[in-house]
């Protein structure tokens, strides 16, 4: 029987559209103003933090809709932005430096919908307001730093093997080693070739010199490492700001895009991103009297610091090692399945650690995190004043003489070990970064963009709806139903994909999709009209109209999809936002204009004896 789908196929099409509608549903509930409290430097909010927040809000007569502790963060929802702003100020003053208090917008999605993963679409910076930076990584500085490491490593390796040399120095794009005699040159070349296979080594026996250059592959690895490590460090700093849905991602070979929704103070955001932080290793002063130090009588060669829980510890003033020598830090587990942090140092750092620990085996060593945080105060010249914050993040006993690689145990849980590894890596940027572009979008402008974009979509949909109704009559209603299903599926898919973000150009992509989606139905309906004019029956005309138009529709949409994917792959910012919605819209429009519209036609007219139809 022509134009008659089996029941299972019709139900499957209806189920797909219903699923899209279900996941598009969270977008109609809106968002509520909220305050998010999250811990800094590995601290996690707990039940005690929750009770403190409740007490502070009640003490200041601030009512809230709900408060919850999730994933180490406390999220409090309010009825209006006035209470939200007052609560932020109250909590910021009362919680101190251990927690970040940030404004947030949280979805009003019902619990039953959130339990199945229903979330509203994430809005881009141009729709939500905030600050955007484009930062450029100084790759030449990264290469120079790698060459400095080569100089230090060469000296250490040659000394350990007792190979005599006159000097090891950097040149323009290489490292040059001058030896005392030919035998030393040959021994040095043999040693360095074994240990540094990613370097190009050349020798000059007359001048007794060995020149080491990085291969193209090594240079690529250095640049990639500098970019990825800077992204990790910046993302760690941004996360500590407590910004809702921040974006930190690479752009091209040497740029980093940072978007901070909801942040309006550009100057302070720049200061925080460029703030310096470092790590120091110090021995614990086991001979000093802690009780006297707490009363203010601190020994001249010691300092008194506390950990994240406020527990005081007396440390020796002399610094064993700074974080500048750390090349990598990874969390893991030891042979007893206890959390640990594995640390790698450069050659100079390894030598310092070795000499500092050989006579202190069995003594406790503290890892101190030092950060210069931006304050609300400014000096006479208008510059933001930074406050030095020192905190002990780990105390471990030295079990053996340490070198370039060692591990820290006693970090607590696996989560704390992971956070400690992040902090150790985030001490300093691998290569300097420069802000080459900055952009601020106000929340009022963002709301206006949302309103205008929504009006454009509805206007486009309305005009197409009217045209199809007038020109194709009953079949125009079918096309409009399919077009509505297309919009629902676009919104549903955008809401389901974790990384998808709706931007203003993305809204333009949806408007374009509305026009493109109806093109397919126009092709089908015009072909049905032609078949009817040639004298075929209604059912044959409908069948032939859909079958003959499919190849044309697929060809036209596939070529557009290829262009959209290219835009997504090489484009950035607004171009990528446009490509995302266009790509999703092309796929959903092919489904709705062919499959959904034909299912409706089959249900209404399929298998019936018809003399005429309204088309």
Automatic annotation (TrEMBL):
Membrane topology reported for the UniProt record: Multi-pass membrane protein
Domain SecDF P1 head subdomain residues, every copy: 306-431
SecD export protein N-terminal TM domain: residues covered: 2-103
Positions of transmembrane segments: 452-471, 478-497, 503-525, 546-570, 582-605
Coiled-coil residue spans: none
Matching HAMAP family: SecD_B (MF_01463_B)
Stated family: Belongs to the SecD/SecF family. SecD subfamily.
Protein name: Protein translocase subunit SecD
Organism name: Colwellia echini
UniProt gene name: secD
